[in-house]
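Our preliminary data section would be incomplete without showing what the modeling component actually yields. Below, a chain of 369 amino acids is followed by its predicted structure, encoded as tokens that our downstream tools consume directly.
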Amino acid sequence: MLSYWEKQSLLQYDYIIAGSGIVGLSTAISLREAQPQVRVLVLEKGVLPTGASTKNAGFACIGSLTELLADLRQLPAAEVLALLELRWQGLHALRHRVGDQHMDYRENGSYELIGEKELPALSEIDGMNDLLRPLLGGDAFTLVSSDFGFNKSYVKALIRNNFEGELHTGKMMRRLIDLALFYGVEIKTGCTISGISESDGGVYVSVGEYSFMAGRVGICTNAFTRELIPDLDVVPGRGQVLITDPIPGLPFKGIYHMDEGYYYFRELEGRVLFGGGRNMDFAGEATTVFELNAQIHTELENRLRHIILPGFSFNIADRWAGIMAFGQNRQPVIRRHSPRIALGVRMGGMGVAIGTAIGAQLADILIKE
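Predicted structure:
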């Protein structure tokens, strides 16, 4: 039962954004930057942001060498470059908005572990550098000989990506929430959207007994978008992650990739955070259910023990899963869905890199008649 006052003043907005992850908050902030007078509401179904924004590994990625080479086998070079440019510009936009100091951002590059089957990629370094140099302003990839204590029977070479970085995901999201509140964005959590209906007068968004109304609605629910728009080409991809207790004498810092980016690890406060393995069970990990995959976690531990930390003892301190979104191609979905509803979803596991740029684009779409 709602009062006259509630109906008049507490349910009406200019814009409603579904999803309070990186893209949702970035869209809301961009709307208020462009139109300080508008009322913006962000609805989040979880108590905390649900999906990958707060559950990722804290990588600021543009793509490892083998990952980009795999893309070039499937896509024209111009399309791969366009995606890379979006990631590069998105990272700069994130850093400008949040500030490196607020999310412990460090652009120290990354390393890719090259095994026997990836050795042919070494001959592609010069060609890839030539392709990317006009965008990045320097050589993206360098063959290095640093010894980080990895198992030499597996790791035949190390390739440094000179333009990737790392950050503290929790601090990044905390800062984005604080900025959204500073800009006057209203955020409501624990609000599962049960329906969206559009009319000439606006869009009605149902949450329990409440029906919010807005002139425009932005959908930023990434892997969960098919709960609202069932026929969209969005396939969830769950990512498994674990983190160790602090390891005395840990011989490396920074961030690392393996196997075309399907595995990734980093040093974090003397611990090792290790995630990935989705390629072991694509079908099983194409889910929006937050559960651990025992088979993948066993493989993560095996790689830690035999490849990454041979000769070290370690304890697993915690495990979790985050859910990304993929499609038939690498492109994010950023477009108008209907006259009053627009989409900014399917980040392809690159939400940290592209989320801020996608939010700005989505805000532009929503503002335009």
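Residues 4-54+171-233+329-367 form a domain with the FAD/NAD(P)-binding domain fold (CATH 3.50.50.60). The radius of gyration is 21 Å. Preliminary results of this kind motivate Aim 1 of the renewal.
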